[in-house]
Design brief:
Shape: elongated
Order of helices and strands: HHHHHHHHHH
Oligomer: single chain
Strand content: under 5%
Number of helices: 10
Structural class: mainly alpha
Mean pLDDT: 80
Low-confidence stretches: 1-19
Distance between the termini: 105 Å
Helix content: over 70%
Length: 273
Amino acid sequence: MEKDRPREGIWIETADAPPARPPSRASFLKEHGGAIWRLFFIQSSRNERTLDGLGFFSIVEPFISKCSRPGEDAKSFARRHLGYFNAGLYLSSVVAGVVVNMERRRARGEPVAVERIEGVKAALSSVLAARANYFFDALLVPLGLTIASISAMYGSYAGLIAFLALYNFYHFQSRIGGYCRGAELGEGVGGAFVARLYREERLIGGCAAFAAGVFAALLFVKARDAGGAGFVVWGVVACAASAVLARKLSFVRTVVVLFAATAIFLIVRGIAS
């Protein structure tokens, strides 16, 4: 007699359990809503020893009871995730989702070793931190601030609104979307998810370079209108001096020196005029 098996989406009664259905959006939010809310406070307990370790533990802490095997002490779960953790601000949520997925599968009895969880956590945290920091710090934020600055030159708040909309679109995608995908797929989330998340990276990089050129041109035009040719010449000298001083001084000291020199120049110029 042929063994019963699932046909046409109808489960025929056998000794096996029916395949698990993916949870609905409402049930997922009910189960993971607390963790998603805590994602936004991951850096609130940063310290020199564990960096964001306490913040990461606060995200996965609601799942201790569901991630512990029968008879297993919850302290072992806490020890695994109270150590050093550094995945940046934006894609640490992906790591949290992956860890929750793997820990829950381990609690259900699947062959997921503790060493494997720790290895995936360490590997993802370093790779994703570099990826997200480059996208936000080198491309997206400079583009948004440049647009806001150009708009401010003409007394408009449109650039500020555009910056907030652009930044938070990718910010919430990274935080909330990253956690949801990590919790759904586990270590299978892969680089394809991040590539889709930041698929406009080249476009944004090109726009950032173009906006920086426009801003530089407008800055000299506005400076000439506000302070005359002398102020423009001083700006060119200051830019050249920053390149020279950066080789001898730290970034902070270079900024302080140029700020003080510019302040003295404006005071003397105001007295002379």
